Amino acid sequence: MLRVAVPNKGSLSEAATSILSEAGYRQRRTTKDLSLTDPDNGVEFYYLRPRDIAVYVGEGTLDVGISGRDLVLDSHADADTILELGFGGSTFRFAGRPGVAQSVKDLQGKRIATSFAGILGDHLAENGVEASVIKLDGAVESAVQLGVADVIADVVETGTTLRQAGLEVFGDVILKSEAVLIRRHGVEQPAGLEQLVRRLEGVLVARNYVMMDYDIRAEAVEAANAVAPGLESPTVSPLHREGWVAVRVMVLRADAQRIMDQLWEVGARAILTTDIHACRI
Ligand SMILES: Nc1ncnc2c1ncn2[C@@H]1O[C@H](COP(=O)(O)OP(=O)(O)OP(=O)(O)O)[C@@H](O)[C@H]1O
Ligand SMILES: O=P(O)(O)OC[C@H]1O[C@H](OP(=O)(O)OP(=O)(O)O)[C@H](O)[C@@H]1O
Ligand SMILES: [Mg+2]
User: Fold this and answer.
1) Of 67, 104, 121, 271, which residue is most buried, by most CB within 10 angstroms?
2) Is the pTM of this model over 0.80?
């Protein structure tokens, strides 16, 4: 059986369970369950902290897992990203009281609080900066006010927590993160992984794309294809009405309205978009 690690708590937990359910896998009913077997799909799920998932997968104890890119890099786990999952997006950034520093270069000799000592240490070393790293478990934003650190390096999503603590980001984004599916580096592909990846890719496509149908005069099809070329090639079918065809094409959900406008401009009519429920590309 394929052994899959799933975040049990925190920001990634709910979205990880939803994407697996959408991909047709059984998921645990209560948050107290530590593991769950899905015999029909040949998969065992283990519910663990996402920081620990990087370690289990890196050690080869579990075949694959869902974690955050930042957590994987922070733990220096021997794991590769197989698939970016499109949720749990965040940035990892420096922040401090207004004016305290402009960039990482200003941090020589400073005290920096963080829960990501691995990423911070790597970043300081890359920039040739020596600073003292104060390792905290959470609520890092309070470290400045409470006087244990001069600045912090922390996960920033909306920036609300920073603002509440009277802090501002400074310097470049250290890392952009999102939830990722990981497996141990350099081992043979475990049985069942290909199916899991294909199913998850199917969910991502169904989430990110819509199906667009329209009617157009045959001579305008090329112009319409230039606007919406589809993933491979649009399906063009004859219509009963002479000189007209029906076209079916997948487009990015985020671009759908703009593409409908442009298709209309080149002569498309009866333009419809529909959700894709599930797919294999
Ligand atoms: N707003 C957010 N806050 C924290 N982590 C976030 C946020 N958005 C996305 N993430 C990502 O979630 C992962 C952290 O998950 P984890 O469960 O360890 O912490 P958490 O969500 O802060 O949970 P906890 O409540 O235990 O602090 C990281 O990959 C991080 O980048
Ligand atoms: O930019 P924002 O949208 O405010 O989100 C970022 C904050 O959310 C997380 O904290 P969490 O609530 O997980 O608490 P923690 O610091 O104790 O982990 C993270 O550590 C930041 O503090
Ligand atoms: Mg947290």
Assistant:
1) 67
2) yes
